[in-house]
Amino acid sequence: MSVKVRFAPSPTGKLHVGNVRTALVNWLFAKGQGGSFVLRIDDTDLARSTPEFEQGIEDDLTWLGLTWDERYNQSKRFDRYEEAAARLKASGRLYPAYETADELDRRRKVQLSRGLPPIYDRAALDLTDAQKAAYEAEGRRPHWRFKLEGKRVAWEDLARGHAEVDTASMSDPVLIREDGLFLYTLPSVVDDIDMAITHIIRGEDHVTNTGAQIEIFEALGATVPGFAHMPLLVGADGAALSKRLGSLSISDMRDQGYEPIAITSHLGRIGTSDPLEVASSVQALGETFAFTKMGRSPARYDTADLDRLNAQALHVMDYASAQPRLQALDADLGETFWSVVRGNLNKFADVVEMAKVVRGPIQPVVEDAAFIETAAGLLPEVIDETAWSAWTNAVKAETGAKGKALFMPLRLALTGQAHGPDMAALAPLIGRETIQRRLKGEAA
Length: 444
What we know:
The protein is built from 19 helices and 12 strands. The protein is an alpha/beta fold.
């Protein structure tokens, strides 16, 4: 059986690291086994869904390299959901209930006060046709509940191992609201059936829902897919990440200069036994992905790890990949320049400052004018890859300076910065004329 998975985001907001991790793990699992990845836009809430958010989802996934094999909009499939609902109504598994939200809340409070679990009491199943008609005459419209069988539903979870849910401990879930809007569950099951989804991969906060969904699959006479429920993300401090997800949207991270492979390597490997290193590609991540590597503890999302991976991705980026972006930033000074400076980049945009150091003008920092004047008199005639060593040895012999006292004044005078690329490689890029001017304290 060929693996087929789906990612079904709602276009009511931006993608953040939490739901992108779900998309990524689905993609890695499918592609690692030669399967297919379905993008299914959950836009059944027509009032809150927007074309802008839908486009943003596509843009973010494309930027991350998570391309899809099939794409659907749930808003174009209402007829299929109506057909499934009619089947469930005809079989007695979907029934109308007329309680208001306030009435249900009062019942829950009474149950809790009596030490009982706050489970729906199925009072709607005892309504007569006359009582239903009376409610309708009042202007009430029913919401529709799925009648659970009240049994232990078991499955072998790819991430958690053997799992069981007792549907007797659950309220019959509402599948259709009073206004006729389908809630998530029924469209999701119908689509999974129609699209032949083989595995449903999501966060462990959906474990309880799985019991009810398996019963709906069975009620519709469908094969039940496999499931994997991943541990959720937490912050570096172990606290829930959910409240901070708004600041962790993929579009914002792109604007902040993070590389897509750093994001996918981070999200694909935290919480697993794989080393937290940047992958050569998202395809390579898929080749090594396995649920058996995934731990049971929450995965810690630490921005410091992401920053490290981002720098790592830049340090190994070849010139061919970098060149279009260098040109866009007016910082393409050639392949040698890139090979010299890339090891000092944390974000790609840092290269602009590196280009300025080479091309100028910068304001040199001269703290000891006499020392720099002496060094200027010893500057080699030819600035090549051997010049820096020869020059610093000559300055050392003349002044007695060594270590940081020797190298730091020269770096500050030539670059205006205390840190940066290897000076032996950088000096030939700057050139002798510019070096001479900077040693005189001139902006060059």
